[in-house]
Automatic annotation (TrEMBL):
The keyword Metal-binding applies. Pfam families: PTE. Zn(2+) 1 binds at residues 22, 24, 149, 267. This is Phosphotriesterase-related protein. Keywords: Hydrolase, Metal-binding. Its cofactor is a divalent metal cation. Zn(2+) 2 binds at residues 149, 182, 210. The modification N6-carboxylysine is found at residue 149.
Amino acid sequence: MTAIRTVLGDLPAAGLGRTDYHEHLFQVSPLLPGEELDDEERSGAEAASLRACGVEAMVDATPQGLGRDPAAVARISERTGLRVVMTTGAHRFEHYGEGHWLTGLSAEALGERFLRDLLHGAPEADGPGEDLPAARGPGGEPVRAGVLKAGIGYWSIGPFERRVIEAVGAAHRRTGAPVMVHLEHGSAAFEVLAALDAEGVPAARVALAHIDRNPDPGLHAELAAAGAYLGYDGPARHREWPDSVLLDCLAEVAGRGGGDRLLLGGDVARRSRYRAYGGMPGLAYLGERFLPRLRERTGAELEHAVLVANPAAWLTWRVPEEVPGAQSAAK
């Protein structure tokens, strides 16, 4: 398969459009008490606001075991016209904690779960067991994931995270699906790339989420030269730094030749930060406030690369021809 897998079906790369590479429509984590995103009507309204500000597609980056609602995401996508790529995989250990059913699984078992989401469709709700009811889209079709996710701690890859990386590698080798990795505070990027490479995932298929939490353009240019996609998703986080820091970093990395590896999202990810849940600044901040400044700072050509060309290239499934046992995602 050479296409992008959304919750409503597969698209050619040219059909994706302006893409926010990292958001969460649903998310429930013990690390974020009181910040649950768990209401379809409100999350749908937030998605509609993102679409209304000119964004045409997004990646819902919530992996297994953290309150995903695949059927609701598919309904929201159909209702709003916002194309949504759903995520499978797992986050860093702290988002689950001791005793969670997911953290006790072997790498092989995790990989089979991830592969099921990619090829056959996600369950209505994540949980232990093998025969979970399947999520169905508005037309009764399976709701399939289109991207794999792993996560690490701050300069730390624990035993669970290593099993997830192994499982992500196994699922990638079978499908060619793209990979996203949560880097806590932007740390350990090269170490993660090395761990994934050992599992058969080349840097050119990996998006390094939150790399902008360490806004170091020299480091970013090195990572881009290694082939990795750089996930900038920190607009409106003014307690850390102003948006101007991210804009300057984007511009400098592009000037050093990394413009074709940049991705942009909001990662708003909190009830207290979603307008539809009573917070701010909301998903629309990206389109209403940040993108006009990016366009003014760097021009329309880089904006098109960051929002259209780069996410389409990253999200397109490509089965590695040299990998034994590789199979088409269409099966």
